[in-house]
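Suppose a colleague, Dr. K., hands you the sequence of a protein chain of 56 amino acids and asks what its three-dimensional shape might be. Before reaching for any lab equipment, you can write down a predicted structure in token form. Begin with the sequence itself:
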Amino acid sequence: MSESKFSKNLIKLRCGTCKRFNYYTRKNVKLVTRKIELSKFCKFCRKHTTHKEAKR
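The predicted structure, expressed as tokens, is then:
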């Protein structure tokens, strides 16, 4: 089977505090060249922390 067009754009978001992977999201690689940084809730830290894009 060939790879889906959606799985190519998937990126992992890693918590800035505990360094665990909590979220997956997509980004348009052609338009957004920088790394994504979002404020999300971390279930391990039990608070809102910055989640940064990690390596694939």
